[in-house]
Amino acid sequence: MAAWTYSVAAVTVHHGAEHYRFAEQSVVVNRLRSASGVGVLREGVDAAVLGCQIASLMAGHHLICERSDTTDELPSQVRAMWSTVSPLVATEDWVARHPTCVRA
Questions:
Q1: How far apart are the first and last CA of the chain?
Q2: Which of 32, 35, 38, 104 falls between 20 and 30 A from 45, CA-CA?
Q3: What InterPro entries does this protein map onto (predicted)?
């Protein structure tokens, strides 16, 4: 898993499903499959299932920040999400090499 960046862009309800599918398939699932392919994900982690969950979490953070007029907080919310999820799905070796990417 690489360092993640997430651009903040308002997405209308009309385009929400399209945005979600793009995030899920093009960004999250593909990156997780790449991570799995090089042995970064723990054994048994299904990249497609995890990708759906991550995309949902990101969409939820985006919606909450957008609706509460706190979109400036979205990057930190996504970083916090990854720092919580990474140690659960990444190998111990990856976590040891990337201590700044995980919560203490």
A1: 18
A2: 104
A3: Tet_transcr_reg_TetR-rel_C_sf
